Amino acid sequence: MKSIESFDNPKYKLAISLMQSKYRKKNQMFLAEGLRNVELAVDNPKTINLIFIQEDRINEPRYSNIIKNMVDKSFVVPSKLMETISDTVTSQGIVAICNFESFMIDDIDFNNDVLILDKIQDPGNLGTILRTADAAGISTVICTKGTTDIYSPKVVRSAMGSLMHLKILFIDDYESLNILKKNGYKIISSSLENALDYNVLSTIQSKIAIVLGNEANGIDNKLLNLSDLKVKIPLYGAAESLNVGIAGGILMYKLKERTLF
């Protein structure tokens, strides 16, 4: 099995560069850290560029199974190298360099519901939303300008492999979302003001693009003006609002009720 010992190794240097957003975009690659995340990436082998495994882990069953399946792309590294490419306090001793594909607005799957994320900032929230979208059967996610980097380490960890399953695209202006309306979608925004009860989602028969907004400021007014409908989740206690990840999960699963009955 191949090994990397030097800080000057080009593959190691590539991994270090991918800790910065600009190099992730330039190379269309990101780092997936942690045993389960790498196992999920291995299930989609086209996404794997290479895998770094810490030398004291290679004989553990789950690690050795990854090596067996990806022997040509696996490299043993000493702990001193692993520590520098790990983003976690307690590293599990495995990091993969994964490829990602860029999608355009015309690549949307116009046969299914769509999720629109407007300037979501917290990486943990974003990763949770992407994982929930994947679980709820949504295959296309549109991120507006100002949404945090979906390939940052914390988002990747929170998404738990779902980045490999979703078609994620980015838009610079809200007007480009009109293509959804032209293809029979209703754009429905989550809002606390002038909104209907979210249970209305299960009664709408057209395709839906559900919009979740920024944690502090909500959905941009320009996007609200494009929306066909606004919905809200009732609050029964003293809390002013729900976490956007929680709200997104409730709304996405409410959409599924149209196909369950």
UniProtKB/TrEMBL annotation:
A Pfam family: SpoU_methylase
Sequence ranges assigned to domain RNA 2-O ribose methyltransferase substrate binding in this UniProt record: 31-104
Keywords: Methyltransferase, Transferase
CDD domains registered for this protein in UniProt: SpoU-like_rRNA-MTase
GO biological process, one term: methylation
One GO MF term attached to the UniProt entry: RNA methyltransferase activity
GO CC terms, sorted: cytoplasm
Coiled coil location: none
Lineage: superkingdom: Bacteria
Homology family: Belongs to the class IV-like SAM-binding methyltransferase superfamily. RNA methyltransferase TrmH family.
Protein name in UniProt: RNA methyltransferase, TrmH family
Organism: Acetoanaerobium noterae
